[in-house]
Structures are given as C-alpha cells and as structure tokens.
Amino acid sequence: MSSPKTPGPKSTAQSAARAAINRAAKAAQRPRPDAQQRPPKQNAKRATAEARQVAAAIQRGIADNQLDVLSADALQALIAAACKLYTARREGGEDFAPVPKNAISATEVMVTASGLLRAADLAAFELGMWQGWTGR
C-alpha cells in the first residue's frame, strides 16, 4: 500500500509573500485604537516596510519562477491600491514617476498599461486624447 503523496514545501518567496499579505490583511481588519494616536509618519514607515517586504517576496518569486507567489485577486488588489495612491499623490501636487527609470522593461510597461486600459474599458486613442487635454 502506498501512502498518498503530500505536496512539496512551498517556495520561500511564495511563503514570504503570503505571510506578508496575511499580516497586512490581519492588521487592516484588527481595530487599532492606538492608530489615531500614532503619528502619521510612524504609520507611513510601517506601511512602507510592509510594502517593501511584499515587493521583495514578489521579486524572489519571479526569480524562482514561482509566478503564483500571489493569487490573482491579491495582485489585482495591490495594483489597484498602488494606482489609487499614485493618482492621489500626483493630484496632490507631487511629481514623481510611478516606477524608477529602467526598473521595468518596455514590454512590462506595455503589457501592464494595456491591461489597465482594458480593465477600465478604455482604448489607447482615449488615453492619447486625455493626455492632450490635460498635458499629463
């Protein structure tokens, strides 16, 4: 009689990403009476550290060819939140690129931009018109 096969251990990157996302999700659900008392810079430092941990786990997953390091819905939530925060900061007067120069390839930009346009039911033509109107 053979024993049932057990799944192999998850990759380190996948485990780290899931752990970071689970910590962030639990923290968001937990009532934080002290959050309003904590200075905003402390909150920003914590969120920044957590975001860097998730980004590092994602990068390790890509390097290890573990592309399922995040579920599709978790990846969508991160991209949506990043887009909203970037837009709010730009509209608030900050002027910086969404990613550092040469941090991603032209193909990665095109694939992501195409996906974002499709998700919003927009065409490249509409983006061009909007850029012409707003100068952005």
Shape: globular
- In whole angstroms, the N-to-C terminal distance is 67 Å
Mean pLDDT: 84
Measured on Cα atoms, how large is the radius of gyration? 19 Å
User: What class, by secondary structure content?
Assistant: mainly alpha
> Could you give the order of the helices and strands?
HHHHH
Residue share in helices?
55-70%
Q: DSSP strand (E) fraction?
A: under 5%
* Low-pLDDT windows of residues: 1-7
Please describe the biggest sheet, giving its number of strands, its sense, and whether it closes into a barrel. none
The number of distinct helices, counting runs of at least 4 residues, comes to 5
Characterize the quaternary organization of these chains. single chain
Q: How many DSSP E strands?
A: 0
Description:
By secondary structure, this protein is an all-alpha fold. 64% of the residues lie in helices and 0% in strands. It has 5 helices and no strands. The chain has helices spanning 12-29, 40-63, 72-91, 106-119, 124-134.
Task: Compose a concise summary of this entry.
With 136 residues, the chain is mainly alpha-helical. The chain contains five helices and no strands. The longest helix has 24 residues, at 40-63.
